[in-house]
Design brief:
Elements: E1 3-7, H1 35-44, E2 49-53, H2 59-71, E3 75-80, H3 89-97, E4 102-105, H4 124-133, E5 136-139, H5 146-155, E6 161-163, H6 179-187, E7 192-196, H7 209-223, E8 228-230, H8 242-253, H9 259-276
Parallel strand pairs: 1-2, 2-3, 3-4, 4-5, 5-6, 6-7, 7-8
Length: about 280
Amino acid sequence: MRIDAHHHLWQLARGDYGWLTSAPALAPIYRDFSMGDVTPFLQRFKIDKTILVQAAPTEAETLYLLDIALHDTRVAGVVGWADFESSNAKDTICRLAADPLLLGLRPMVQDIPDDDWLLRDSLHVAFQTLQKQQLVFDALVLPRHLSRLAHVVDHFPGVTFVIDHLAKPFVALGALEPWATDMSALARRPNVYCKLSGLITEAKTGWRIDELRPYVNHILRVFGPSRVLWGSDWPVADLAGGYRLWAESTEELLAHLSEGDRAAVWGETATKVYLTSRGRK
């Protein structure tokens, strides 16, 4: 089974996408996106299931995505959002987790001004509740957050962590360090996985596959294909070439792997991480 482990849908009129504006740089994605829009890509690349990921830091958007998942069997589940620092964090996470289509939660760490936010003691209840509810923590982090993330992973070894978008390395600059060293350190923690997604939007305009290859090869080497999972990051991917180009490039980037290892990246890892733990397989 092939799984797109990371894509978004949104309706502008909902009004809670603070980052999404009509600025020229975001013009290609400043419109509504539905499952109907992604269907041609799912068919072309034989994607059986998808995982919807939050794009707004609101519980309302999580409920909106869960409703989509309820009515479209191609959506395996949702990675939503909850306020980890709320005094009601435990109750909120438990209430959301009562829906079996909720697979994980994702605070938008990359947008939080405090680089040490992940280290706050006030988040412990939320992480403890994630573990109890068998929810994944999707880490939307940047390279500067990786050492902080390692501390959290060590503190909560019972939580499954998935690093989104390879932590957005500096592909446009061709810089591997200190990102590569920090990712290697995280890969030594067995409860950490890495999403092969979001890489093209970190590259220069007109990027070439060879510019992506060092980053992809590094995560394949340190995590191994059994802990790497593919995501389109669509429609954000439309800012840098789109779903088709990213999927075709991924095929080329994984061509040197065995058939079994390619199958892991394209779906088996996502099944293990997101679906098996909550009984959705």
